Amino acid sequence: MILELDCGNSFIKWRVISRDRAGVACGGVVGSDLELIEAVRRKVQGLDACRLVSVRTDEETTRLTAQLGEAFAIECVWARPAAELAGVRNGYEEYQRLGLDRWLALVGAFHQARCACLVLDLGTAVTSDFVAGDGQHLGGFICPGVPLMRNQLRTHTRRIRYDDATAEQARHSLMPGRSTAEAVERGCSLMLQGFVHTQLELAREYWGASFQVFLTGGDAGTVAGLVPAARVAPDLVFVGLAIACPLS
């Protein structure tokens, strides 16, 4: 069994798959290294390998891999920056500075589509990446996602105070808000939708109708209705990770 990890700054997304990729045995999201080890230990027997992508510092990642090695007697393989991988050419002027999670997601998307792609990752931050049909990464955009927008308003505006349950209820409509929670939540949703529309327009300028859209990240479902033909791919980073770190 192979443990796969997507190590972000705040959370670790994990899953366990069989070597024949017959399916995902289990997985989840945790907030710390210790929680990860405990969760995997509860649900899995017989790990024999680990591969991971990390946006953390090398010191933090090394500490995590050492803990995993001690807990499960496995070696961890890291994804590394690359100028080219699996037919995709990194479009950044300094390829090492493109976030590894973004890089693996766009590699995974192109591997699946084999045509021009627009990859939208809708999480704490929102990113877009454009990959031409010949595998050339054209670059992309980064902006705050809904969680960041919401938290900034709550932090810097004294009168904006409401709980998560109120926020969830406020998002059920996009009519003009009649409370602060409704105004903020619906305003953030509209900003996210506007970003998606702009990316689609730019992709059409590049490729007409001949491109595939991939949606990933926690808020992917909230905009899926705007792009009916899009592929919602929550594990897109793991697709790229398997390409970057094949295990025999």
Automatic annotation (TrEMBL):
Its EC number is 2.7.1.33. CDD domains: ASKHA_NBD_PanK-III. The active site is at D101 (proton acceptor). Substrate binds at Y92, G99, L100, D101, R102, T180. SUPFAM superfamilies: Actin-like ATPase domain. A monovalent cation. Ammonium or potassium. Pathway: Cofactor biosynthesis; coenzyme A biosynthesis; CoA from (R)-pantothenate: step 1/5. It is found in: Cytoplasm. ATP binds at D6, C7, G8, N9, S10, F11, I12, K13, T124. Homodimer. This is Type III pantothenate kinase. The lineage of its organism: Bacteria, Pseudomonadati, Pseudomonadota, Gammaproteobacteria, Pseudomonadales.
